[in-house]
């Protein structure tokens, strides 16, 4: 878990653009493999940005479909109301082809939506000029200046392509990080309780009784970040705190989802930064969990609302090293085809290489 892929049980993953930096996370392994040319496409899991954020930091395309669009059968559950499986690729067409392959209803996953899957790749050639693109002002506060410059250039390119740029507001955005890290950790605490060494996962060989087996198994079997989230989740679900934290977070989640529903009455897609900053150095945020969590500030909102999102490259920062910047495009529920069409138009117009 985490926004940097430094918490692997084996070793940290490195960013192919600068081996001293993180690839983003938590699906940084998939993102870095595609960015380095080790794979044409890959799968990731996105709970609060774990596909989109590493795609941005590694300079590739990463997509999270609508909640329920892709079956999660076989995925280790982190937060069941937020988890998605989605594709990485170097082009929008690659992502469209892979999404079309994995999307659809699955009777083995009760959350998999029984909604027809369109021909995503075939829809890429359709005209999208004239669509209304919402730009929320809340997503540009605290943004790295170079990232902000590239995103603004990307929005200007969309305007040149014939899109209508519409300033919008998503007023409950400021509460998204707190809301997400209450709901996600609560669900992680519940889901990961099954990994007790009896039926699921790793079992420590060093124990003398049942209690010792549980304690040593969970201590050695989970990394520091996973244990931190289990403890946070257990706390917010505990007696006396459930209403103050978890129930209140669910109410705010509804407000965040309502913000998007109201925005999509006026616009067709929404464009934001994917990450507030480019790839940071390995070890730079390991001891500061809050700063690590804030790396997800622009991605958790779509996860909470259950809407689809895609991150596409939007040039690189200046200086040495030149690091990738990603822009995020969001659409209404099950409108992945529209999302891919806009991303493809942006790619064809040179948006990936904005200088």
Write a structural description.
38% of the residues lie in helices and 13% in strands. The chain is built from twelve helices and eight strands. 50% of the residues are buried. By secondary structure, the protein is an alpha+beta fold. The protein has a domain at 28-169 and 269-353: Alpha-Beta Complex (Amidase signature (AS) enzymes), CATH 3.90.1300.10. The mean pLDDT is 96. Strands 1-3-2-7-8-6-4-5 form an eight-stranded mixed β-sheet.
CATH architecture of one domain: Alpha-Beta Complex
Q: Give the overall silhouette.
A: globular
The percentage helix is 25-40%
CATH structural fold name of one domain? Amidase signature (AS) enzymes
Strand proportion = 5-15%
Distance between the termini: 33 Å
Mean pLDDT: 96
CATH class of one domain: Alpha Beta
Which stretches of 5+ consecutive residues score pLDDT under 50? Answer: none
The radius of gyration is 20 Å
Q: Provide the CATH superfamily of one domain.
A: Amidase signature (AS) domain
Q: How many runs of DSSP E, i.e. beta strands?
A: 8
Strand order of the largest sheet: 1-3-2-7-8-6-4-5
Largest sheet: 8 strands, mixed
Number of separate helices: 12
* Oligomeric state as shown: single chain
Structural class: alpha+beta
């Amino acid at each position: 878990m985490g926004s940097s892929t430094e918490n692997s049980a084996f070793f940290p993953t490195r960013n192919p653009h600068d081996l001293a930096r993180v690839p983003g996370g938590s699906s940084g392994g998939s993102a870095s493999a595609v960015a380095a040319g080790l794979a044409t496409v890959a799968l990731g899991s996105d709970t609060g940005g774990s596909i989109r954020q590493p795609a941005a930091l590694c300079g590739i395309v990463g997509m999270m479909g609508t909640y329920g669009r892709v079956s999660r059968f076989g995925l280790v559950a982190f937060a069941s109301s937020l988890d998605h499986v989605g594709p990485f690729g170097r082009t929008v067409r690659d992502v469209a082809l892979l999404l079309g392959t994995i999307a659809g209803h699955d009777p083995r996953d009760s959350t998999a939506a029984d909604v027809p899957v369109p021909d995503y790749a075939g829809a890429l050639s359709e005209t999208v000029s004239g669509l209304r693109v919402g730009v929320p002002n809340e997503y540009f506060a605290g943004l790295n200046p170079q990232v902000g410059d590239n995103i603004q250039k990307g929005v200007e390119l969309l305007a040149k392509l014939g899109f209508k740029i519409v300033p919008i507001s998503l007023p409950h955005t400021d509460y998204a990080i707190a809301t997400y890290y209450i709901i996600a950790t609560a669900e992680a605490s519940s889901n990961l309780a099954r990994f007790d060494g009896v039926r699921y996962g790793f079992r420590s060989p060093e124990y003398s009784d049942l209690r010792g087996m549980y304690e040593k198994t969970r201590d050695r079997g989970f990394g520091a970040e996973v244990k931190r989230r289990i403890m946070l989740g257990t706390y917010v679900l505990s007696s006396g705190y459930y209403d103050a934290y978890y129930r209140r977070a669910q109410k705010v989640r509804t407000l965040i989802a309502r913000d998007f529903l109201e925005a999509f009455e006026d616009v067709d897609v929404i464009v934001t930064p994917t990450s507030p900053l480019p790839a940071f150095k390995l070890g730079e945020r390991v001891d500061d969990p809050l700063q690590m969590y804030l790396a997800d500030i622009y991605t958790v909102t779509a996860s909470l609302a259950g809407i689809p999102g895609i991150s596409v490259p939007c040039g690189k920062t200046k200086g040495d090293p030149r690091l990738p910047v990603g822009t995020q495009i969001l659409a209404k529920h099950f409108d992945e085809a529209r999302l891919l069409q806009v991303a493809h138009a942006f790619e064809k117009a040179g948006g990936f290489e904005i200088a």
